[in-house]
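re: ur question from yesterday

yeah so i grabbed the chain u mentioned. its 201 aa long if i counted rite. heres the sequnce exactly as i have it in my notes:
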Amino acid sequence: MELASGVFYCGFNSRKSFGGNSYFVKHPAGNWLVDSPRFVEHLARRFADQGGIRFIFLTHRDDVADASKWAERFGATRIIHRFELAAQPEAEQVIEGRLPIRLSPEFVAIPTPGHTRGHCALLYRDEFLFSGDHLWWSRVRGRLTASRDVCWHSWREQVDSVRLLQEHTFEWVLPGHGQRVRLPREQMRREIARLTQALAA
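ran it thru and got these structure tokens back, copy pasting raw so excuse formatting
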């Protein structure tokens, strides 16, 4: 399902990733898969029709699902943080450290430890933040949120990671779990600041 020009929600959520969402980005320099849906032939044909998959960005260990099968099918490069590598030990590209890393001119990996030790978000075109299990939109609360209840590594680092997102600009939050949202950039900045204050309190 196309969410915005060239950015798609995959569907086919996998039980292996607790029903987590995954996304497909059609890009002239090679298409990206963000986290992994179930491997099904119907979806594989749809990806092939769009030019295949060049990169698979895995936000963290919980949401790798069938990433190995997708990588094998399309000869894709899997990207994951060193601290999550046990979930994809044969990943072709490994992120190191805690600083943002520009993976290509339009894609930036942002380490966001907290939910897991090596959790990373992916920022595309300073517009789309693929946030994994770091944060999401709460339809009930009407704001961005994160939860201590699903923080497996460090809540303090989770709060610090949210604060660091204020250094970036984006309009979309596309999470692994929870509701996605699009807001004007300045409103999104205010929502990130609001969430930072709420978590710190």
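noticed a couple things. Residues 51 and 154 are 39 Å apart (CA to CA). also The radius of gyration is 16 Å.
anyway ttyl
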